[in-house]
Amino acid sequence: MKQAELLNNLKKVAAHEITPQQAAEKLSEIDFTELNYAKIDTARKKRTGYPEVIYGAGKTPEQISGIATALKKQGQPVLVTRVTPEKATKVQEKVSDLNYNSTAQVMIWEPQPATHIGEIAIVTAGTSDIQVAEEAAVTAELFGNQVTRIYDVGVAGIQRLFAKLNVIRQAKVIIVIAGMEGALVSVVGGLVDQPVIAVPTSIGYGSNLNGMTPLLGMLNSCSAGISVVNIDNGFGAAYNASMINHLASKEAAR
């Protein structure tokens, strides 16, 4: 918080231009922690209900450690995505209580265990999609959602999907993750009455085009009620699913 901004808000309160409550809200909205390489949005959780998340790719272990430490000082949960095992080891040398999930390639720290509500089902077409699925699962759990994992139920052996339909239909939101041609999303979308969030993955042979083929297939799905996030974006799918799940729980509690 810059001193000039603080002084300006105090003057507005003194002049009765804004109330003390409005001033407090303004202060929380512009609050951030200044590092020489990053500005940590410590007010994000107050505004949106979700804390700042660290995208680990392209950041050095020292930068990740500094940002994570700043978030911890605020008592906020820490989630670092896209962290290689080698980088995670170096980060843990500086912040030892950051836990690393090697499958999801994420690091997490929770000030206290989250209360899990509702249910998000995470469904993958193949075992090769599990890294993206685990990024989604760990993110959703950190954000306070109950997660059910249903892996390797792709259309090449569609009986596997039908065997799990009762479990999938119990969820409030369904995340479907698929590479190759991405057909699983349309099938699931035509069998359930919950919102479906589709995640195309870069898994597949040459004409998969690093995920472009399933991305376009999902965008053109004939099943209604499907939204699509970017290629390999398990985090984004989980964030969206968490917002839907918490909104549904709030409505049910009224």
TrEMBL record:
Pfam families xref list: AIRC (PF00731)
GO molecular function, one term: hydrolase activity
Domain PurE: 118-250
BP-aspect Gene Ontology terms: 'de novo' IMP biosynthetic process
SMART domains: AIRC (SM01001)
Entry-linked InterPro entries: P2CMN_synthase_LarB (IPR039476), PurE_dom (IPR000031)
Record protein name field: 1-(5-phosphoribosyl)-5-amino-4-imidazole-carboxylate carboxylase
Species this protein is from: Liquorilactobacillus nagelii
Organismal lineage: Bacteria, Bacillati, Bacillota, Bacilli, Lactobacillales
